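Before we proceed, please read the two lines closing this message. Let me know whether the structure tokens fit the sequence:

…
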Amino acid sequence: MGSNAVSTSQQPSIFIDGEVGTTGLEIRERLARVPEVTVKSIDPALRKDAAARKAMLADVDLVVLCLPDDAAKETVALANELGSDAPRILDASTAHRVAPGWVYGFPELDAAQAEKVRSAQRVANPGCYPTGAIALIRPLVDAGLVPPDHPITVNAVSGYSGGGRSMIEAYEAGTAPSFELYALGLEHKHVPELMRYGGLTRRPIFVPSVGNFRQGMLVSIPLHLDTLPGKPCLRDIELALDAHYRGQELVTVVPEPTAKAARIGAEDLNGTDRLELFVFGKAALNQAVLVARLDNLGKGAAGAAVQNIRLMLL
């Protein structure tokens, strides 16, 4: 089909490479509700056959990679061999999120990002944790409220569906702990992505965790407001976020949440593609806790992928 244009004589076609995994299944389910596209599948017996996969790549307008990083790189190499017949690529792995030549698939990143995704040949779907953290940090860096070199700590909890097949099986078998911190060596693969698109020059401390629930996510960032250059108040933070996301369909800033709730659940957005942002805190203490809530399988994975697919093809 080729990567330069979508055929005007038929619907744009998509191949999900890795469609039997958690993210692939979620994307396919969502695309079933998008009648403007056609999803093509390869014979299960040929999923690892390079020639068959290469032929499929040449036959579609867009391939979505729901694969481990090394396998994603292999598919990209196959696509490279096709030259002008290569499809556009949306990679849901971590392999290309900070790679040259790839556009970051968070359309709400800034005013220009959606158009960059729309015109890109290769788009890297964001990670679930970075989606929440970048959504909170980037607008404040752009507004000058948080310096790029400010020491940032990102704490996050996800449902176990974000941990891959072995973790899912352990939790569903009842052999996993109820809650655990992980990546305590501070080398989580999401940190480079978080830094680059969060606009940070100082490496943040990122502390992820997983709980005994299937899906849902909270990302929280504590701030001592009196350590920031302009000593912003809670309202300043909220207004900066609101200005950045005003008019966005999927990202909303919940106004003045402190007056409404002293706690927040991780699962309230499950089954949606939405992202909610909150500014909790106490003015007298000059302290704030910024929170992002999302479904790690929604805006954190498959929902974001379908959002990018719509931009790229429709």
Notes: The first strand starts at residue 13 and ends at 17. Residues 298-313 form the longest helix (16 residues). The chain has nine helices and 13 strands. The chain has a mean pLDDT of 94.
